[in-house]
Amino acid sequence: NRDEEAASTLRKIYPPSEAENEIAALQKSVQAEREDEGAVGKISIFKLLKTKIVRRGLTAGIGVQVAQQFVGINSVMYYSPTIVQLAGFASNKTALALSLITSGLNAVGTIISMFFVDRTGRKKLMIISLVGMILTLISLTIIFHESSTHSPAIGVSQTAHFGNFTCPNYKAMPAAKWNCISCLKASADCGFCADSSNK
Q1: Where are the domains of the chain?
Q2: pTM value?
Q3: Which residue of 71, 81, 136, 145 is 20 to 30 Å from 105, comparing CA positions?
Q4: What are the TM regions of this chain, as residue ranges (predicted)?
């Protein structure tokens, strides 16, 4: 029975043109619930899904989750230590420490969102963050594509230019266990290595 307080809150969240319709729809929904059941707690999921407000909230919630999965930030956060290692930081400790920056920025972004969510509105904030996320992921894609297409070839002939400067740790390593990360980890002075099969 705190109708005025509820109406005041809804007017802060919704544009003036939508606020009154939303208040009326909520009042109608509450009244219908009272008439149908007489008490909260006995209402069924099917009756809830018939309510326009519940359906809209459920659709919005599912839509946000789908959008979050499609932009791919979860995979970037999950694989950030690997991404950092592929960028040339061989140490697991360094890779994990640098990946904490991604997690830290995510936490900071969440706190900023909590601060602005009721001031700017959920829809506006979501659209701004979604556009920012898409632009950031496009930038990340372009950077990795460019670095892979423009990086110099590394093979036996390229390594031969350096005489005996190929990592001694690598020379002693069985060819079957060789990969880029093991080469980076072989020595702090290693730039690149190659094996006899021209990997």
Answers
A1: 1-43, 44-120, 152-193
A2: 0.46
A3: 145
A4: 95-117, 124-144
